[in-house]
Request: fold
Amino acid sequence: MTTLVDTTLRVLFFGRAAEVMGAARMIDLPEAGCTIAELRLQLAEAAGADILLKPGVRAAIDRQVVGEEAVVKPGAEVAFFSLFSGG
Amino acid sequence: MSVTTRLQAEPLRPAAELDAFLQGRTDDGAVVSFTGVARRSSHAGAEVVTLHLEHYPGMTERSIADIAEAGAARFEVSDVLVIHRWGDIAPGEAIVFVAAASRHRGEAFAAAGYLMDRLKTEAAFWKREDGSGDSRWIEPSAVDRDRRARWSD
Reply:
């Protein structure tokens, strides 16, 4: 029996990044997941835009800011955003 | 002690919020409040028709609550209130309202200043000034960062 694993990932964008990438995208991930750094490259290629590769664009997994080596698993919610403007 | 934070799209009514915050307060000798208001012109002098505040549901509320809780723990205050708006804000409308109550004024002034200095640099918002023909994303200014740095341990 095979177990079906949902390998889709919901990626959100905020601030300047959302203007280029749109508010959200769904992408397919390897079952084992991938790092934030790998995900940036994949998204940049899919969108044909380099905004996510620019310095200062941070990432969060399930609403916690994370570094480049953090591993994203299917089912997580990932967000990319430029620096906070503050309130 | 209570720490209350709210994130809302609806217009903010500072006078009503302050009035409610003052109700039944008999042990505190000081309440300091601050209202941040949307300006009609940018730092560079460009016209601002609308200030657009984008937020990330869940993360933005958490960032505001973390700051409010840190302020309440750092100063001798009895209650802290932070209300922040998101969405499109017109010049003259309130963006943020902060109030701190304490037995004496020194701690209330300090707490309100601390809360605002951290909110201005660390709250999870993305702000865009929309003019009549153009738009600009904005980041904390050097002054904002300097003011935040005063509170570094």
